[in-house]
User: What shape does this take?
Amino acid sequence: QSALTQPPSASGSPGQSVTISCTGTSSDVGTYNYVSWYQQHPGKAPKLMIYEVSKRPSGVPDRFSGSKSGNTASLTVSGLQAEDEADYYCSSYAGSDNVIFGGGTKLTVL
Amino acid sequence: QLQLQESDSGLVKPSQTLSLTCAVSGGSISSGGYSWSWIRQPPGKGLEWIGYIYHSGGTYYNPSLKSRVTISLDRSKNQFSLKLSSVTAADTAVYYCARLSVALGGHDYWGQGTLVTVSS
Assistant: This one.
């Protein structure tokens, strides 16, 4: 199984919106709605931001939203804030009790 | 509040076996609806799922690591463990334990991670 494909970097100014893509295949993202997104600040453990494509855990701001079309999932961060600067990873169930992650995207707030 | 804490493995020599435990507090590893994962992150790189164990004891591993990985539960100590055999420098990484929620389909609680270095 190959890692999900994410752009290495993304950026936006405070207040703007940024969308990060996560491309898989028909064996993972395209078939299952178990796509999740994680935020990781330097030296910290990842934090679950989105699960089941578009749902937010309690406590995650509604500025974070997720969607999926075909084999590609997306994370959108609206109203960018300085604290949103971090690495973001997508993850998907890949069948046969396997989990795969994306390579990660470094989000810079300009 | 659920908390997960990895043990400190530190330095492991090439060809030896890496062993880590994850102590869980604030909840039981025997609770239904959850699996317990190990995930690693080489320095400066992305996350890699190693495998998980269901609350019932069933195990599932990353196919690329399956021949070298064993994950087990210790219900008496409320902890779970990882063993990775025949390690090489490529296994140098921060190792995280995490809870996989079946309801959420995502890892909702994570340990702080422990750096394991493979070097002679």
Remarks:
- Chain B has a mean pLDDT of 95.
- Residues 23 and 79 of chain B are 4 Å apart (CA to CA).
- The two ends of chain B are 39 Å apart (CA to CA).
- The interface with chain A takes residues 37, 39, 45-49, 52, 60, 62-64, 96, 100-101, 104-108, 110-113 of chain B (CB under 8 Å).
